[in-house]
Amino acid sequence: MEVQGKIKLIGDVQTFGNNGFRKREVVVTTEEQYPQPIMVEFVQDKTDLLNNFNVGQNVKISINLRGREWVNPQG
């Protein structure tokens, strides 16, 4: 899937745990009739890719969606 729009925010690199897992987030606002802010996470060595971009820049990002089915906590 591709997300196309303008960069609204580029987060700092976050490091977790003893193994040094790294994560960095970017928020892209789509440019359509009803613009939507979409947050995309970059992990490990991919976090460095965001160093080449600035807030306000137009981008097209190819992403892999991951999710899980919602489960009602009440059963």
The number of domains:
1
SSE topology string: EEEEE
- Note the overall shape: flat
Q: Report the total helices.
A: 0
Uncertain segments of ≥5 residues (pLDDT<50)? none
In terms of DSSP E residues, the strand content is over 45%
Number of strands: 5
Helix content: under 10%
Major beta-sheet overview: 5 strands, antiparallel
Distance between the termini: 33 Å
The average pLDDT value, as a whole number, equals 93
Q: Using the CA coordinates, give the radius of gyration.
A: 15 Å
What does this structure look like?
The structure is a single chain. This protein has 75 residues and is mostly beta strands. It has one domain (2-55). The chain is 0% helix and 45% strand. The protein is built from no helices and five strands. The chain has strands at 2-10, 14-16, 21-30, 37-43, 58-62. Strands 1, 2, 3, 4 and 5 form a five-stranded antiparallel sheet that branches. Strand 3 (21-30) and strand 4 form a beta hairpin. The radius of gyration is 15 Å and the shape is flat. The relative contact order is 0.32. The mean pLDDT is 93.
